[in-house]
């Protein structure tokens, strides 16, 4: 509870006009997940509802990571080192609108806005106490962000540097998740394979790589986000795309008992869908618990600032 309270106060700072610009987001309802079907169950997930999000703000888009900080308040990061905050309003339990939305820029430890193309590609976000951890591609690293006054600034004392691992360009730390039991950070490259052909992953403690791990590579999918469940199991969001087949989305569950294994991590596929469903370039995943006690999954897509793609928000109930 203390952690959530701290972050709700931090979100209030982020939403002040002195720090952030107003951001008007329009939301169009997604009534059904499968096109032309009223079906609601898909694998181990039940579709709750969804939104197509649009804005006239020229820096809106590229959403790659999302977390809920308290109740329905969210924080998201984009490919241009921007932070979007707001309240996800629900009606009858379904996503309905975005309220109180703001957008602000992440600043480097020297207080200057991160602007370089290779430095600003934020792809993942995690909450850590009263701080934020953000993973970046191209210049592959994880930084810790602090609220300094009314500015969101990188902490110069914390940097996980992945340069020694020589990830392929634009395939770096796309997914990060903090293990609530061990306090260790799990990080996964989007698509950087080891000698055995599996996805590279890392267990991080105190800003240092403690152990190299891996995730079983399946069918050329990329890893795009991760989030721990309350019971300690780990969800990994995956995506595949080519211009001939369109997008695919997949969600895999890694059991808590397997997380520190020396074998490649693998697990049950909870959902696996293609472009017959209302998906796009799905990259962000957040887990929250409803007042009724069920586990709710929120996913968002990165539109790459392209008019040919959409920013989509989807919500599902995780079934037993």
What does this entry look like structurally?
- By secondary structure, this protein is mostly beta strands.
- The chain has a single domain, classed as Neuraminidase.
- Helices cover 4% and strands 53% of the residues.
- The strands form 5 sheets. Strands 2, 3, 4, 21, 22 and 23 form a 6-stranded antiparallel β-sheet that branches.
- The relative contact order is 0.15.
Secondary-structure element pattern, one letter each:
HEEEEEEEEEEEEEEEEEEEEEEE
Distance between the termini: 26 Å
Task: Examine the coordinates and then state which fold CATH places here, giving the name of the CATH topology.
Answer: Neuraminidase
Q: Mind describing the biggest β-sheet? A: 6 strands, antiparallel
The proportion of residues in beta strands is over 45%
Based on secondary structure, the structural category is: mainly beta
Quick one: overall form?
A: globular
CATH top level? Answer: Mainly Beta
